Amino acid sequence: MGRRAKNKQGPPAPYVEVKQDFETTTRRSGGKRKQNVDSANGRPAKKVKPDGVVKNAGKKSGKGKKTDDGDGWEDVEDSGLKSQTRALFDNSDDEESLEDLAEFDDDDDDELGEADDEFLSKVPKSALDLESSDSEDEPEPKKKNAKPPKPSSSSDEDSASDSDEERVTLANMEAKARALDEQAALDAEAEAEELRQAAEGAGDEDDFEMDEAGEGDGDGFVLPTAEEREAQKGVAGDIHGAQRRIQQCARILGNFKKLGARDRSRSEYIAQLLADIASYYGYNDYLAEKLFHLFPVLEAIEFFEANEVPRPVTIRTNTLRTRRKDLAQALINRGVNLEPIGKWTNVGLQVFESSVPIGATPEYLAGHYMLQAASSFLPVVALQPVPNERVLDMASAPGGKTTYISALMQNTGVVFANDSNKARTKSLTANVHRLGCKNVVVCSYDGREFPKVMGGFDRVLLDAPCSGTGVISKDASVKVNKTPRDFMLLSHLQKQLILCAIDSVNPDSKTGGYLVYSTCSVTVEENEAVVDYALRKRPNVKLVETGLEFGREGFTKYRGKTFNSKVSLTRRFYPHVHNMDGFYVAKFKVERVAKKPASSDDEDDKKTKKNGKSTPKGDEYEDEDVGFNSEEDEKYIEASKIRHLKSKGIRVKPKAKPSS
Ligand SMILES: C[S@@+](CC[C@H](N)C(=O)[O-])C[C@H]1O[C@@H](n2cnc3c(N)ncnc32)[C@H](O)[C@@H]1O
């Protein structure tokens, strides 16, 4: 694992907020549990990775002097600024100057929208601080950050180029970011292949080699029996033991035929490994197993490890208000250390450290950027909205994606930003105002009421409610609070929503006719299974390329289930591979439904009623059973309606049970 970890992207280093006096830096640590154990309580303590943070902090931290004790951003001396900027972009070329910012590549030369000064002057600062409710798109910037994916070199020979690598200038920034991305992608691929081979090699017990003790070459490790494992469960704080067994079991499972003990099966090692993963990383047994099975053994450990480390803090330039190069300049002037995220986005910036709270700069308050996870850009990039379209964002609060859609449409056309949770639409509305989106209509319906409430959209984004297994590094409660029932209910809701989303797309759209489905979860039942269901239930849709340049292919086979082969066009993103939150993106093209050869009006009416939605008369589905409101679904729809009415204070009489 050590070698593998070395060859892949560096683990994200924590975000550093530079102290106001610019002389010392405060480093916040994100933690890898396994790397440091707090001897006082025997539990792993969080530790800063020496590589990266310190280097970054030293390389790029602001050295300017503040001239007063004000609020930290107004009075940084110009000389301080220059040296700070030079430190950030120094390529040892004395000619380097702030003018080089002009070379900061940005395709978006959109005219700026009017700053909504009136709104800003009326809204209290606190109302614009949306971080608390915006768990997905508004990461807590003070605590979390990381260095960008950076392939580490293992040889001395490489150390010279390492120092070259550190000299980032505005001129070479984009190219360097691109090179790093490409290298990281290559490394990730090589690693995935290595893991695949290790996994394939494992399990062939014919080729078993054992040592004299008949224990294989397991380094003297003796696998506990099932009884011993049960007994371990009650023992609190055996973190060291769990950590050691995880390493041993993973190593043995990676080459089971050679290293496994003769009298123990592969499944016994897996059972032990799962028990230890659950206790060491703090997951319930169910979720630990569910996530474990997504990957080959060694990669699964990397995934669990990555969930212990914060993802990079990233911001999205709001092109309705500014350009990326101008925003970068403004933030650099305030002592923010940043870089473009990667070549796949021309609006994203990654923040390494800052002398000011990144969620409270004047630029933030003026709507020049959104604090937004990089993964959250992906579905909008896939959606590709264009000016003057009619777009539905079906589950949109707090609006990270809505406001991006609005910007790509250059404040033209209309974006209906819907969310069933009224309370959450407040932060959505605040973001819409702050970012100056004038083409957004906020509404609050259950997504399953579309297209009854309105339809005919050129594009629909369904960023579905999900279990959040992709964002465990942000919300560790997911580790313990998700049960099989949650996954069953969520998957069901997602299936209902996706059919409604499909039916809301105008298949005759001149410019679009697309649906993007996304989740911040990595489980198959919330992703591929939902997409496969939609393909089966709506023969008038097909999967198309997402247009995203990276990401792993969606599963077409998973633990005995086979999905439509086109599901490989969907994309999975992982924290340990892509250094971003776990995410899933699928893009559909919606076609016209095939006309029924000869149909009576009566039959059409029946079908419209059966589907419970306003299917245009005369349009016909090829498959009789295309609606989701089967008997099974009705139960859930009914329950949801009752909940909805109850939430409005309306008493609902329970339905009389049909007599059997
Ligand atoms: C993943 S979050 C959306 C994040 C949002 N797209 C963004 O980028 O800021 C899922 C949202 O779905 C909403 N939601 C849950 N059930 C819903 C339903 N039945 N219809 C519409 N929205 C729903 C939740 O309130 C939540 O805000």
Automatic annotation (TrEMBL):
GO BP annotations of the record are:
maturation of LSU-rRNA; rRNA base methylation
Q: What is its main location?
A: nucleus
The residues that the entry says bind S-adenosyl-L-methionine are: A395, S396, A397, P398, G399, G400, K401, D419, D446, D463
InterPro entries recorded for this chain?
MeTrfase_RsmB-F_NOP2_cat, MeTrfase_RsmB-F_NOP2_dom, Nop2p, RCMT, RCMT_NOP2, RsmB-like_ferredoxin, RsmB/NOL1/NOP2-like_CS, SAM-dependent_MTases_sf
- SUPFAM superfamilies, alphabetized: S-adenosyl-L-methionine-dependent methyltransferases
Give the start-end ranges of region Disordered: 1-176, 188-220, 596-629
The domain of life is Eukaryota
Q: Where are the transmembrane segments?
A: none
> GO molecular-function annotation terms?
RNA binding; rRNA (cytosine-C5-)-methyltransferase activity
Q: What is this protein called?
A: Nucleolar protein 2
